[in-house]
């Protein structure tokens, strides 16, 4: 029986010296405007989803329909969570990447 010896070489991570810049691509300001508009549309959609879900929750509770009431509660939680993530998108990206997005 042959034995196999495996050698593992650990290379220290080296910084390649590349950093994000704000003037590297043409059209970057337009892309930032589009991303901001998407954030706005997302927040508006969250408000609409929250209102519809709250109405479903209220009507389901009023009519003793636990299925609709449960779906309404879930919809409210999902809409609120999505709004939280969308609203804090810049801060989340800035925290995990160290890049100043805004």
TrEMBL record:
Organism: Kribbella orskensis
Protein name: TrbC/VIRB2 family protein
Record-linked Pfam families: DUF6112
Keyword line: Membrane, Transmembrane, Transmembrane helix
InterPro entries, alphabetized: DUF6112
UniProt entry tagged with the keyword Transmembrane: yes
Superkingdom to which the source organism belongs: Bacteria
Annotated transmembrane regions: 38-62, 74-96
């Amino acid at each position: 029986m042959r034995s196999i010896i495996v050698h593992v070489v650990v290379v220290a991570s080296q910084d390649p010296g590349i950093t994000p810049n704000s003037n590297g691509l043409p059209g970057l300001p337009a892309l930032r405007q589009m991303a901001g508009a998407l954030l706005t549309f997302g927040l508006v959609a969250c408000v609409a989803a929250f209102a519809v879900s709250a109405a479903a929750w209220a009507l389901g509770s009023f009519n003793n329909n636990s299925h609709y009431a449960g779906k309404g509660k879930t919809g409210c939680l999902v809409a609120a969570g999505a709004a939280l993530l969308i609203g804090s998108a810049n801060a989340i990206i800035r925290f995990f990447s160290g890049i100043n997005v805004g």
